[in-house]
Automatic annotation (TrEMBL):
Record domain N-acetyltransferase: where: 13-211
Keyword Hydrolase found: yes
Record Pfam families: Acetyltransf_1 (PF00583), CN_hydrolase (PF00795)
Annotated ranges, domain CN hydrolase: 227-483
A single MF term (Gene Ontology): acyltransferase activity, transferring groups other than amino-acyl groups
Official protein name in the record: Carbon-nitrogen hydrolase
Organism domain of life: Bacteria
Protein species of origin: Pontibacillus yanchengensis Y32
Keyword annotations of the record: Hydrolase
Family membership: Belongs to the carbon-nitrogen hydrolase superfamily. NIT1/NIT2 family.
Keyword presence, Translocase: no
C-alpha cells in the first residue's frame, strides 16, 4: 500500500484577529447569519479595527471566514442599567471604547449556519476570555439575543422565558449557548436591538467573571485631569537679529513654564518677524529667504521645550522643501525632545497671491503626555470636516495658531473655533499676532484676541470661555482645561453631539486628503 498523502485530508482552522481584508467576508457573513437585521457597514468595522483591533476576532477555515465577534472595553458602572446596543457601542462605531475600562463588552458574535456544531462560537468565546485575562479585566459582559422568545411571547414574559431556558425547559440557540459557556444572567433589557424581531427587541445582559482578575492601583477613577495652556498673543515688531527674536520667544516660554503650563501656543507665521532683517522687498522672494531660518527655528524651539519642560505649538513657519514649493507648517515640539509637524491644508487667497504658498494634504492627530491633540492653522479651523476627523481619532484639544489683519478676519477664526468646540465636544485654543511690521511687504497690520474655549454645557464656564486676552495688546492668557470633565460630558452631557450624529444619513468621505495618527513611541 502506498504511503498516504495526509495533506489532502488536512483542514486549516485558525482563530485570529480580524484584518482589513476580512471586512467584505464579515459583512457577507452577517447577512447570512442575521437576515432581516441591519448589517454592519464597512465604516463600522473599519472603526473597530482602528480603535480596538485586539478585541476583534474571527475564525478562518481553509481561507474562508466562517465566524467572527466584536468587542470593546468599557467601565460598565458608567452605563445605565437599561442601556441599549446603540448606547454601549456608540451606534456600532465603538468610539466610546475606554482603554482604562474594567470590562470587556461583547457586541456581536456570529457563526455561518453551514458550520454550526463545530464549536466555532466556543472558540470565539475562549478568545475573548483569554483577552480579558491578558488585559486583567474584571469581567466580560454581553447583551445576548433571545431569538426563540417570539415563539413564546404570547405565553410568558421575557423574564419567565429566560428562567425556563436557564432551567433547561426551553432551548434558545443563543441564551443556552451563553449559559453553557459560563455566563450568568444579570437582567433583561427591553428595546436593546430595535430591529431584532425574533427576540421581540429584548436581550439578556450576561456576565462572565475573570477569576484571575487582580485589582491594581494603576487604574483608578479620575476626579480631575487638568491640562494647563498658555496662549501667547505675540507682538510683531521690527527686530535687528535672530538672537533678538530668540530672546523674545524664550521670554514667553519661560513665562508659560513659570505658570506650570503643559502647552505654550504661538501664533501663525509669527516667524515673519524675521523678514524685518531680510533685505528683500519682493514677498515671493522674501518668503524663501525666511525659509533659510528653518533649522535655527527648529533648534531654538526644541531646546526651549526641553529646557522649560513645556510642549510648544511653535506657531507656524514658511518652509521651502526639496520640490521648491513653500508650505505653511505648524510644528509640535514635545517636552521630551521629539518633533512633529502639520501642514496647512487650506491656503488663503492672500497666501497664494503674495507668497505662492502650497496646501498640504494630510490631517494629523498627535499623541502627547496630555492626551491626543490636533493643530489646525488659521483658515483650517473654518472647515468643520478637519475637526470632526481629529476628534473621531481621539483629539481632546485643537490648537489654532492664527494671523488676521482685521476684526472681521479674527472673528471668522474665533466663531469657528467656538463652533468646533461645541459641535465636537472638544477644547479649542486660538493664538494670534498683534502689532505691525512697518518694513515688511504684506504684513501690514494685525488684529487678535487669543482665547481658550470649551463646549457649552453645565460642566464648563457659562459662556464657554476658559480665558481670553484683551484685544490687540502683547500679552498671554493662561487657563486649565479638564480632560476628565470632557470625557464625562461626552457620555452624559445635556446634549451629546458626537454620539447623536445621524451616521445612517451622512458620513465624511476624504478623497485625496490623507489622514494620520502620530504616536509618541
Amino acid at each position: 500500500m502506498s504511503k498516504l498523502d495526509l495533506s489532502q485530508f488536512e483542514k486549516k482552522i485558525e482563530v485570529r484577529n480580524i484584518r482589513d481584508e476580512d471586512i467584505e467576508q464579515i459583512m457577507d457573513l452577517q447577512n447570512v447569519c442575521f437576515p432581516g437585521m441591519d448589517p454592519w457597514k464597512r465604516e463600522h468595522l473599519e472603526s473597530h479595527l482602528d480603535i480596538f483591533p485586539e478585541g476583534q476576532f474571527c475564525v478562518e477555515l481553509d481561507g474562508e471566514v466562517i465566524g467572527s465577534c466584536s468587542s470593546l472595553m468599557v467601565n460598565f458602572d458608567e452605563y445605565d442599567d437599561q442601556h441599549t446596543w446603540d448606547d454601549i457601542t456608540d451606534e456600532g462605531y465603538i468610539t466610546n471604547h475606554d482603554p482604562e475600562g474594567y470590562n470587556l463588552y461583547g457586541i456581536e458574535i456570529m457563526v455561518h449556519p453551514d458550520y454550526r456544531g463545530m464549536k466555532i462560537g466556543r472558540r470565539l468565546y475562549e478568545a475573548r476570555k483569554e483577552l480579558a485575562q491578558q488585559l486583567n479585566l474584571k469581567s466580560i459582559i454581553i447583551g445576548g439575543r433571545i431569538p426563540n422568545y417570539s415563539k413564546y411571547e404570547d405565553q410568558m414574559s421575557p423574564r419567565t422565558y429566560v428562567r425556563e431556558v436557564m432551567n433547561q425547559n426551553i432551548y434558545d440557540p443563543v441564551l443556552t449557548f451563553q449559559i453553557m459557556n459560563g455566563f450568568t444572567v444579570m437582567r433583561v433589557n427591553p428595546n436593546y436591538l430595535p430591529d431584532d424581531q425574533a427576540s421581540s427587541k429584548y436581550a439578556t445582559l450576561m456576565e462572565w467573571n475573570n477569576v484571575d482578575y487582580r485589582p491594581t492601583t494603576k487604574r483608578y477613577f479620575k476626579t480631575s485631569y487638568p491640562v494647563r495652556i498658555t496662549a501667547i498673543q505675540y507682538m510683531m515688531k521690527n527686530i535687528e537679529s535672530f538672537e533678538e527674536f530668540a530672546r523674545q520667544v524664550e521670554y514667553y516660554v519661560d513665562v508659560a513654564s513659570d505658570y506650570g503650563s503643559d502647552f505654550a501656543v504661538f501664533p501663525e507665521i509669527f516667524t515673519t518677524q524675521l523678514m524685518s532683517i531680510i533685505d528683500e522687498k519682493i514677498p515671493s522672494k522674501a518668503v524663501r529667504k525666511l525659509s533659510e531660518y528653518t533649522e535655527d527655528y527648529i533648534e531654538l524651539f526644541t531646546h526651549l521645550a526641553v529646557k522649560y519642560n513645556v510642549n510648544i505649538i511653535g506657531g507656524s513657519h514658511f518652509v521651502e522643501e526639496d520640490n521648491h514649493k513653500v508650505f505653511n507648517i505648524a510644528y509640535l515640539f514635545r517636552r521630551d525632545g521629539t518633533i512633529e509637524k502639520q501642514y496647512k491644508i487650506h491656503v488663503t487667497p492672500n497666501e497664494k497671491k503674495w507668497w505662492g504658498i502650497q496646501p498640504g494634504d494630510t490631517v494629523k492627530v498627535f499623541d502627547t503626555d496630555c492626551g491626543r491633540i490636533a493643530i489646525q492653522i488659521c483658515y483650517d479651523i473654518q472647515f468643520p470636516e478637519l475637526s470632526r476627523y481629529a476628534v473621531d481619532q481621539g483629539a481632546n484639544i485643537i490648537f489654532c495658531p492664527f494671523c488676521t489683519d482685521d476684526r472681521q478676519g479674527y472673528l471668522r477664526v474665533r466663531y469657528c473655533a467656538q463652533a468646533r468646540a461645541v459641535e465636537n465636544q472638544v477644547y479649542t485654543v486660538i493664538a494670534g499676532t498683534v502689532g505691525n511690521l512697518t518694513q515688511v511687504e504684506n504684513m501690514d497690520i494685525q488684529y487678535a484676541q487669543s482665547g481658550i474655549f470649551t463646549p457649552s454645557d453645565f460642566e464648563f464656564a457659562r459662556d464657554g470661555i476658559v480665558g481670553e486676552c484683551h484685544p490687540n495688546i502683547e500679552t498671554i492668557v493662561v487657563g486649565d482645561v479638564d480632560l476628565e470633565v470632557l470625557r464625562r460630558q461626552r457620555k452624559s452631557g445635556t446634549v451629546r453631539q458626537l454620539r447623536d450624529r445621524r451616521r445612517d444619513l451622512f458620513e465624511m468621505n476624504y478623497k485625496r486628503l490623507s489622514t494620520e495618527i502620530v504616536t509618541n513611541d
